[in-house]
Amino acid sequence: MSRSGRIPITVPSDTQVRIEQNVIYAKGKLGELSFDFKTNAKVEIKENMIHVNKSSNSINHQKMWGTVRSRIKNIVDGVTSGFVKELELNGVGYKATQKGKILELLLGYSHPIKFDVPDDLKIDVPKPTEIKISGIDKQKVGQIAANIRSFRKPEPYKGKGIKYKDEVIKRKEGKKK
């Protein structure tokens, strides 16, 4: 049974939240998002607080209760403050450049990799070895960061590749003679 599902979600004063037919809509200063929670939970809004409860005692509803609460929390946080993922490029000659809505990556291959940036996300390249992805949808920001990272995952011997800013690469010892 979920313990996180019991925690109420506070709605900031500059965010508007409404529920219509098992769909919750959140509108804030950064944009608008919605989530269809079907019949997996009962969602109520009381005095700038969102309360999520189980809709029944079936096993599926007990499992989905905490998930629905987390998704609603991510929607409210996204429209108020947004989400950011930062990537680092480690390796000789590895660099990133931004040309309009296209991210160009030089990762040691014989050709540059051109990545089209979705319209609802923003990608910044403060340094040639850093990429900053920001947006209001947590799932989409994380997925785009994972897609960019998959072009050259960090390898365990020298640590070369694309890694998350806070990621620690577990290093292996090289070959011994």
Number of helices: 2
Shape call = elongated
Radius of gyration: 21 Å
Here the CATH topology of the largest domain equals Outer Surface Protein A, domain 3
- Total number of domains: 2
Strand arrangement across the biggest beta sheet:
11-12-7-13
CATH architecture of the largest domain: Alpha-Beta Complex
Residue share in helix: 10-25%
Work out the number of β strands: 13
Distance between the termini: 54 Å
Q: How large is the share of residues in beta strands?
A: 35-45%
Structure in words:
- The protein is built from 2 helices and 13 strands.
- The protein is α+β, with helices and mostly antiparallel strands and 177 residues long.
- The chain has 2 domains: 4-80, Alpha-Beta Complex (Outer Surface Protein A, domain 3); 83-164, Outer Surface Protein A, domain 3.
- The model has no long low-confidence stretch (mean pLDDT 91).
Record keyword descriptors for this entry:
Outer Surface Protein A, domain 3; 177 residues; elongated; 36% strand; 4-stranded antiparallel beta sheet; alpha+beta
How would you summarize what this structure contains?
19% of the residues lie in helices and 36% in strands. The chain is built from 2 helices and 13 strands; from the N terminus they run E-E-E-E-E-E-H-E-E-E-E-E-E-H-E.
